[in-house]
Every structure is written in structure tokens, then in C-alpha cells.
Design a protein that fits this description.
Blueprint (H helix, E strand, L loop, with lengths): L1 H12 L1 H45 L4 H44 L2 E6 L5 H10 L12 E6 L7 E6 L4 H11 L3 E9 L3 H16 L2 H6 L2 E7 L9 H25 L26 E5 L15 H8 L2
Parallel strand pairs: 1-3, 1-4, 4-5, 5-6
Antiparallel strand pairs: 2-3
Helix pairs in contact: 2-3, 6-8
Bound molecules: guanosine-5'-triphosphate and magnesium ion (MG).
The site of magnesium ion has 6 residues, from α4.
Subcellular location: Endoplasmic reticulum membrane
Family: Belongs to the SRP receptor beta subunit family.
Membrane topology: Single-pass membrane protein
Length: 314
Amino acid sequence: MDDKIHLDLEDFSSEPFLESFIKQIQKEEAVFLIGIFVALLLVILTVDMDDKIHLDLEDFSSEPFLDSFIKQIQKEEAVFLIGIFVALLLVILTVVFFGNFWGSSKARNAVLLLGLCDSGKTLLFTRLLLGKFVRTQMSITESSATYKSKSDRGSSWTLIDVPGHESLRVQIVEKYKAVARAVVFVVDSSVFQKDVRDVAEFLYSIFTDSIVAKNAPALVIACNKQDVSMAKSGKLIQQQLEKELNTLRLTRSAALSAQDGPVGGSVYLGKRGKDFEFSQLPCRVEFIECSARGSKAEDGDADIDALEKSLARL
Ligand SMILES: Nc1nc2c(ncn2[C@@H]2O[C@H](COP(=O)(O)OP(=O)(O)OP(=O)(O)O)[C@@H](O)[C@H]2O)c(=O)[nH]1
Ligand SMILES: [Mg+2]
């Protein structure tokens, strides 16, 4: 497991660089291939022309029948060659197109576990990967491991447990945001009333980021600790977050418009002129209820079926 975590971290630390490198190569490859194609076309046309001149010279000494026969072959050869070129061009375009498509979708295979401190990310991470209960401590660095989803396709994602502490998470989110296929945002439903403002600020900072807005990773809000009797329901958490994000959007846009100069890297959350709702985000949003601890803690299973189903649909 340690090895896996270590290796996955190494893989991912270079991913944005790798992604841009591949894209660069793909771009240059396309130009290179088109260059070859044009060069080949020129060579063939020249050869064709040479042949013609040569044959034309011969024409004077040969019979008219032979002459028309050679011309006929030349015509068909040209059609044949043009056919080959069109086919080649199609192959090149297909390779470049699918290369780009494959590159970008393959690069985004990370599922980020985000949320405030103590919301239960590390316990959820362990439950999803190993199924067992562990005693956790405050995370100070990210952990990652390959998670095989419980779908028929059996897709695998790299699950990344990001520490909740603000001074640690900002840099880590920055590192992985471009490769996120989904964000599982873990909320401690038992203290949600106290946390609502911080949760909204964290969500706001992620979903107004221009790279996140462009990639639109799926958002699963995991309302955790449902085993605690005071826990708020997923529905209530959704309503209160929508209200809080609406207020936050008003204050933030007012603050932004009061600033001088352009503000980079930030997009508008939701739809202008309408109260904020999660359905306005450009990605799939789901609220699920779960308990990473489960009713029997060490001895029992977690209650994370809804989360597993959600991950299977990614
Ligand atoms: N009752 C209950 N406790 C839970 C649940 N999930 C996690 N906990 C407990 O909450 C505490 C914090 O859990 P962690 O998984 O360490 O929290 P975290 O989100 O990783 O916290 P940071 O690493 O500081 O960001 C631990 O004592 C867990 O046992 C749950 O579903 N129910
Ligand atoms: Mg943790």
C-alpha cells in the first residue's frame, strides 16, 4: 500500500507537466505529419510531371495508340495517388483527433476527497479502499491510491485524500485540480450549522477556479457522520449551502467590482440574475448521505453504499 501510495504520488506530481508535454508533442506531430503529407504530394506531382515530359518527348517517336494508352494510365494513376493521399490525410486526422481525446480524458482520472478538517475524509478513504475502520489523525500530507469502482466497467480512479487544514490544502488542490475527474466534498453533518460558512467558502474557491470550471469535474457532496443523532440531512445541507453560496457570491462580486484592474482565474458561480442553485453548475452534482464510521465502528461496516454507487457512475 505504501509503495502504491508513493508511486501514485510520483505519477501525479508530474501529470500536469506530462499532460502539457503530450499536448505539445501532439500539436507538433500534427504539423509534422501535415508537412510530410504536403512534401509527399509535391514529390509525386513533380515525378508525375517529369514522367509526362519524358513521355511527351517520346510521343514524337511512338505510335498515337501507345500515347493515348500511356495518358490513360497516367490519369488513373493520378486518381489512384490522390485517393491514397486522401486516405492518408484521414488516417492522420483521426490519429491526431483521438490522440488528443485519449490524452485529455486519460489525464483526468483523479477523484479528490476534499472538505474541512475532521469531516472524515481519511476514514472514508480507508473504508473505500480497504473496507476497514482505522483510528485517524489530522492529515498533514495527501495520500493517494488506486480505487476500483464497483461498476460493471470496473473503472479505476486515483483517489486522493487531501488534508483539510487550510494552510496545507491550498497547495495540494492547486497541484491536482487539473487532473480531477470528480470532487468528493466531505461534510461533517453533525456540526454543519457551525461549519456552513467555511464549507461554502471552500466550495466557492474551488468552483470559481477557471481550470475547475473548464474541466467541470463531477461534484459529490458526501454528508458524512449520519450515525450521529444531531446530523443534518443531505437535503437540508443542500438548501443551506445554496443560501450561503448565494450570499457569498454577492459579497465576493461586490468586492471584486470595487477592485481596480482585471481579476484573473475566477469565474462567476452559477447563473447571473438568479439565486444560486447547485443545478446551475456546469457539472453533475449529487448530495449523498453516509457514515464512514458505521453504527458499530471497529466491528462493523461503514454505511457508504450511496457514495460507492456515485463513484461507479463516474
Ligand atoms: N461518528 C462518526 N465519526 C466519524 C465518521 N467519519 C469519521 N469520523 C471520525 O471523525 C474524526 C476525523 O476523521 P478523519 O477521517 O481523520 O477526518 P479528516 O477529514 O481526514 O480530517 P483532516 O485530515 O484533519 O482533514 C475521526 O475521529 C473519525 O473516527 C462518521 O461517519 N461518524
Ligand atoms: Mg485526514
